[in-house]
Each structure stands twice: as C-alpha cells, then as structure tokens.
C-alpha cells in the first residue's frame, strides 16, 4: 500500500521521540521512502543514526546543510512528499505552525508543503489540556491539518491523562486513510452526527441508547480523508476524535438539533448516523430522585425530529442521508423514513444481527436511494461501510446535478 510513497517524518523533542523509530520502521517496511527531519531538541532524545539505519536515508536537521540528493532541503522534503507526518508533535511545534513561524528545517518544510500533513501530538497531560495548546489545535484543524489525538494513559512524567503519543497502529491507520484518499470531496462541507443522545432524568440519571458513535465517527473520518470539511456533531462517546474534523460536542437531542441547524446553512451534505432520543422527560428533577413507592412514572414529551425538519425545508444542492436502526420490517420502515423525511439516501441496519448496528466494529447495511434502487452491502469494517456510503452520496450528487 505504501510502496513508493514519499513520506517526510518530522520528529520533535519529546520523550515519545523514541516511538517514532517504530513508526519509521513500519513505514519503511511497507515500502515507503521515509525521510526524517529531526529538530535540535529531538536530537537530545534519539540519535539520527537510529532513523538512518531504519529508513536507509540520511536524516536532515539543518536548514542550511543539504544531504545527498537534496538541493534545498525544506523545498525538496515538502515538494516531493506525498504526506508529511509529525510524530511526536510537541506543544512548541503546534504553536509555531499555528502562528506561521518558520525558524528551522521542520517548520520551513511544514509551511512550504502542499500535501496533507498529519500531526500526532504528545506531551505532558496538563500541557495538552492548556488553553493555548487546545486553541492552536482548533486553529490548525481549521487550516486543514489532520490529527491523531494522543491516548489517555500514564505519561513519562508520572501524570495520568490524555497526552501519550497515539499507538503506531492508530498512526499507520490514519496515514493509510490519508494516502488512499481519492480527494473527491474537496470543497464540500459535510455535517455528520454520531452517538446516542442523553436525556436527563435528574442530575445523576439519563435516558439513552446503545450507540457507541463508531459508525458516525467512521463517516467523519472517511469524509475528512476525502478532502471534505467535516463538522462532527457528537453525543458523548468514548472515541478519539478522527483526524481533521471539527468537533461539536452535544448531549441532548435538543442540543443536537440546535447544533445541526447552526451548521446546516453552510452544509452540502448532512449524514445523520446519530441515534437520537425521540422523547425526553417533560421535567428534569433538580435533585436526585429518591426511592419511594414500588412504581414510578416518567412523563415523556417528543423531541424535535431533526432530520424530518431538514427534509421539510431541504435546500437545492444539499444531500440528506438518514440512517434507520431496525429490529423488524427493515425494508418497509426504511422506505417510509426515506420518503417521509424527504431524504436522498437512507442507510438501514438491522441491529439484531451479529456484526451489525450498535457497538460493533463492523456493520451490515442496505442503501435505499430516493429513486427506488436498493443496494445490499456485505458485513464490512465500519470505515469501509462509510466509504461505500460516501461513494453512493457522490453518485447521487452527480445524478442530481
Ligand atoms: O454508533 P454505533 O454503535 O456505531 O451504531 C451505529 C448505529 C446503529 C447507531 C447507526 O448505524 C444507526 O442506525 N443510526 C441511526 C439510529 C436511529 O436513531 O435510527 P432511527 O430509525 O430512530 O432514526 C431515523 C433517522 O432520523 C436517523 O438518521 C436519526 O439520526 C434521525 N432522527 C431520529 C430521531 C430524531 N428525533 N431526530 C433525528 O434526526
């Protein structure tokens, strides 16, 4: 898959720099031409010789010294690259990049690049949570940089929390997705919803469902890797943020409704993979409800149907995609939702079938098109299903033109 691809790997000065050696080794093992740029601080943690032995290429670290085959290092290492990866990316490199500072080989290469750039932050837990760092990440995401979020765990300084460099597997997956991209969604804005909304009963309890968010996150990741600007309106999940997407966290159906309505005017495509609660408690108790009688009744009222509202006021040029989570009569219910909500495409899954629906890493779906065509897909990894759905969306958009 990576055979012959030119990957420039920036290594910056954090303890996780030693893990970049494993990444360089895996990339080279898959046939990529890996050219490493080390910052001066990275050299305090690992020796260039490690990367030279693993990649077979000279490591570059000086803006003014050309290694064999390179005339101007920052221009060649950006211009020839199919992908630029920075792992680990320290708070310092994120800050410089967010503010256009170019004062060494890595920063000049990054600013001169036109290929996709994948940033893999790793730092102390409190540094990562720092407002300045978080603002820089938001800014860089808006600029179109892709991210692999750090993991939660114990970091070298002994603190526990988010800050540990993502595993080599997760970084390799993001690299593969970025390099496979057909780029056919460049210029499009996609709003994806994901996860199960939570409807509070009292300050400690809520009504929800089994959605893990995996299907919606896979769609967001796939659309972003194909070049789209992606706004991910997500109910609470335990998933890391997919690279390059703009997160909009929500909790309740009404919060999801206002977030979707806020982004709808600028959207070309809306994909509603979220499992939205149809009802909420009429009144949320101010205090924790105490056990009293043997029975208790909650009065529920209807939530807004977000997708139906979008369908009713559908704008020209917008593609609306809904999901249907069914336990029986899949075809009948799917067709009713497709026409009832005025959708272009409906993705139906029978959530009682093993390998489909809630929580699993795979899904088995049937695509119902507005024109009447139905396409059944076999069991596939949710990212592969996401790409099939996006292929269908792009076909629908072409035929609707
Ligand atoms: O998150 P995972 O664990 O990966 O699981 C994936 C999934 C099963 C949640 C997903 O594949 C799926 O089927 N999502 C839709 C679930 C659902 O709520 O279906 P529904 O048939 O109740 O709703 C139909 C459509 O209307 C959906 O697109 C839904 O987002 C939307 N809707 C529903 C109710 C509401 N009040 N507002 C809405 O917009």
Structure description:
Helix content is 35%, strand content 23%. It is α/β, with parallel strands linked by helices. The strands form six sheets. An eight-stranded mixed β-sheet has the order 12-11-8-13-16-17-19-20, with helices on both faces. A five-stranded parallel β-sheet has the order 2-1-3-4-5, sandwiched between helices. A hairpin with a 5-residue loop joins strand 6 (151-154) and strand 7. Helix 1 packs parallel to helix 3 (48-55), helix 5 (91-98) crosses helix 8 and helix 10 packs across helix 14. The structure holds ligand PMT.
Secondary structure: elements and pairs:
Layout: E1 6-11, H1 17-29, E2 33-38, H2 42-45, H3 48-55, H4 73-79, E3 83-89, H5 91-98, H6 105-112, E4 117-121, H7 125-129, H8 131-143, E5 146-147, E6 151-154, E7 160-164, H9 168-180, E8 189-194, E9 199-202, E10 205-207, H10 214-225, E11 229-234, E12 246-249, H11 253-263, E13 269-272, E14 279-281, E15 300-302, H12 306-312, E16 319-326, H13 330-340, E17 345-350, E18 362-363, E19 365-369, E20 374-376, E21 380-381, H14 382-400
Parallel strand pairs: 1-2, 1-3, 3-4, 4-5, 8-11, 8-13, 11-12, 13-16, 16-17
Antiparallel strand pairs: 6-7, 9-10, 14-15, 17-19, 18-21, 19-20
Helix pairs in contact: 1-3, 4-6, 5-8, 10-14
Bound molecules: ligand PMT.
Ligand PMT binds next to helix 10, helix 12 and strand 16.
Question: How would you describe this structure in keywords?
Answer:
single chain, alpha/beta, Rossmann fold, 8-stranded mixed β-sheet, 5-stranded parallel β-sheet, binds ligand PMT
